Design the sequence.
C-alpha cells in the first residue's frame, strides 16, 4: 500500500491535471458500476425505486471516508464487525421502522 500511496502522491504533484482526470474517471466508473448493481436490485425487487446515480455517488463517498478512517484505526471494534455495521446501515438506513414516514 505504501508504494501505491507514494506513486499517487508523485503523480498528483508532477501531473496534477492528469491525476485529477484519472481520479474523476475512476470515480465515475465506480459510480456507473454501483448504479448498474442498484438497478439490477430494483429489477429483482431487492432495492426500492430511487435515483440510483445519486445513491451510487453517496455510497461511494461513504465508502471512501469509511475506508479512510478504518485503515487508520479510528474506529473501535474488529474490521469484520465494522464492515458488518457499514453494510447494515446501507441495507437498513438509520431510522427505526416505527419512526419512518
Sequence:
Amino acid at each position: 500500500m505504501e508504494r501505491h500511496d507514494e506513486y499517487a502522491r508523485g503523480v498528483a504533484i508532477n501531473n496534477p491535471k492528469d491525476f485529477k482526470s484519472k481520479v474523476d474517471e475512476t470515480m465515475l466508473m465506480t459510480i456507473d458500476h454501483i448504479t448498474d448493481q442498484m438497478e439490477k436490485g430494483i429489477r429483482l425487487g431487492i432495492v426500492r425505486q430511487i435515483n440510483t446515480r445519486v445513491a451510487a455517488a453517496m455510497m461511494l463517498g461513504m465508502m471512501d471516508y469509511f475506508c479512510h478512517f478504518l485503515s487508520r484505526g479510528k474506529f473501535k471494534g474488529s474490521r469484520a464487525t465494522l464492515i458488518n455495521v457499514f453494510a447494515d446501515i446501507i441495507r437498513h438506513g438509520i431510522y427505526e421502522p416505527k419512526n419512518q414516514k
Observations:
- Residues 34 and 96 are 26 Å apart (CA to CA).
- The chain has a mean pLDDT of 83.
